Amino acid sequence: MLPDFLVHYYHDRPFQTLTELPQDETERVLAKLAETRKLRRRLRSSFYFEQRRKAERIMHEQFVAKGGEPQRLNPHYAILGESEIWAGIEPQSLRIPLHAIPSKWISFTATDSWSVYIDQDLDGNQIPRKPHYGMLYRSDELEGLFEIHGWPGDRWKTEPEWEHDIYVEAQIWSDEPLREYLTSL
Fold first, then answer.
1. How many other CB atoms are there within 10 angstroms of residue 121's CB atom?
2. What domain count does the chain have?
3. Phi, psi of 180 (to 5 degrees)
4. SS3 of 74, please?
């Protein structure tokens, strides 16, 4: 049974999307953040932002082709259910009922979209490709996806072939369904 909620993990403020900023503005924001805290490695990598923006363009195109109605060019991210990994990285989280996000504004990847769309990690190590990589899914496709490929669960901890299949990522393509959560914090 699929979780009926999303979790958005964050540090200071929820739903901050650096990739929607021009590159020079992204660098300015990151420099300011670096004055007050140690930045995760990916946030210090120009390769990361170059590849992340490229993946977001592909996801946007795929979402539109599948009938999605994005209101943003760059999505907000959340996890379907909970993520032990992100809970250990970010100090805060926001839980959102899945039904609060209309299906026309949400898509999913069957692990972190980095692994789905980028074939190497930040060290240049190859990420083995799987049949469901390179694709995003609508809500009504999830059960079929997991019937075929399985739910990630904790398999990444013990099974090397699941090393990159760590959770189900949700991409939220509109600010509208998030407004009430932002104002209630």
1. 13
2. 1
3. -65, -30
4. coil
Name the pLDDT band for 110 (thresholds 50, 70, 90): very high
Full residue range of the structural domain in which residue 100 is found = 5-183
- pLDDT value at 182 more than 80: no
State both tokens at 19.
């990739």
Provide the token pair at 118: 């980028």
Instruction: Quote the tokens at residue 45.
Output: 């990598």
| Identity of the residue numbered 55 | A
In angstroms, the CA 144 to CA 149 distance is 9
Determine if residue 96 is left, alpha or beta; phi over 0 gives left, psi from -120 to 50 gives alpha, anything else beta: beta
pTM confidence score: 0.87
Tally of CB atoms within 10 A around 156? 18
Q: Is 81 left (phi over 0), alpha (psi -120 to 50) or beta?
A: left
For residue 104, the one-letter residue type is K
Alpha carbon 14 to its chain's center: 13
